[in-house]
């Protein structure tokens, strides 16, 4: 009887584990980018909103978890929870800063106010392109914003 109970529990747990939808491309990191200027972080897929996560925030996604467009996310800026995949963009390229001035200005929007600088020689990931402007995140995640494409290679 004990053996039968153990086998039954193993079968049920295997069935539950295998019924969780998995999407191969969900592991890694993404950046929040939404027309609203933020994305909602929820307690579960399509459930109660816990908080808003502003555009430009970096989130890490749980390896192997994907359910009907929902991802389990972790973030220093936004906390933990669930976010819909439509609210994220992913790195498309790596670049190195080449400005002869020794730094490149990082801006809040394309041609917008300067929010910081990044040193020549440093690298970053490109998440979006708008004309000649690139939305980047620095290699150490210390700054994100827009830079002109002439400042990178």
From TrEMBL:
- Signal peptide bounds: 1-24
Q: Which UniProt keywords apply?
A: Signal
Superkingdom of source: Bacteria
Signal as UniProt keyword: yes
What is this protein identified as? SH3b domain-containing protein
